[in-house]
Amino acid sequence: MTFVQMQPRTTHATAVGRTVADAMDTAGPQVCDDMTVEVALSVMASARTGHLLVCDDSGRCTGLVTQTQLAAARDGSAYSDRVRLRDILGDRGPFTSPVTTMAEAGHMMRYSDVDALPVVDEHGSALGVLALAR
């Protein structure tokens, strides 16, 4: 696994003590959980991204949806044009903190079988995304 590093970093950041804050990408597109699947797919296509951060009415990050998840929901037998992102998100998480070490985040991603983790602050607001490079 190789982690994506999207922003320039200072030279004093070493691999041993690196945290999620050293490697995360900026938050990117954030959408409300009452958005429909079709609109979310359009936003994702316009932003040319493979995932969207989903937030509730209070601005707390409730999860991350991928193009694969949205396409599966749209292709499901129970799909209607009224299906909202909150309907397909399921359990909240997993999330990580910017002070989490890269080793801990990598373990969490492997255990949770995810390619991207929302990075949130102590209030649950999205700060960025830690994603695996492909």
Care to describe what's here?
The radius of gyration is 15 Å and the shape is elongated. It has 134 residues and is of the alpha+beta class. The chain has one domain: CBS-domain (Roll). The protein has 5 helices and 7 strands. Residues 1-14 have low confidence and may be disordered. Helix 2 runs antiparallel to helix 3 (67-75). Strands 1, 2, 6 and 7 form a 4-stranded antiparallel sheet that branches. Helix 2 links the parallel strand 3 (30-32) and strand 4 (51-55). 30% of the residues lie in helices and 23% in strands.
Short description:
With 134 residues, the protein is of the alpha+beta class.
Overview features:
5 helices, disordered N terminus, CBS_dom_sf, CBS-domain, Diverse_CBS-Domain, CBS domain-containing protein, 3-stranded mixed sheet, 4-stranded antiparallel sheet, alpha+beta, 134 residues
Task: State the helix count.
Answer: 5
- Mean pLDDT across the residues is 84
CA-based gyration radius: 15 Å
Percentage of residues in DSSP E strands: 15-25%
Organism: Streptomyces arboris
InterPro entries: CBS_dom, CBS_dom_sf, Diverse_CBS-Domain
Pfam families: CBS
Domain CBS: 24-80
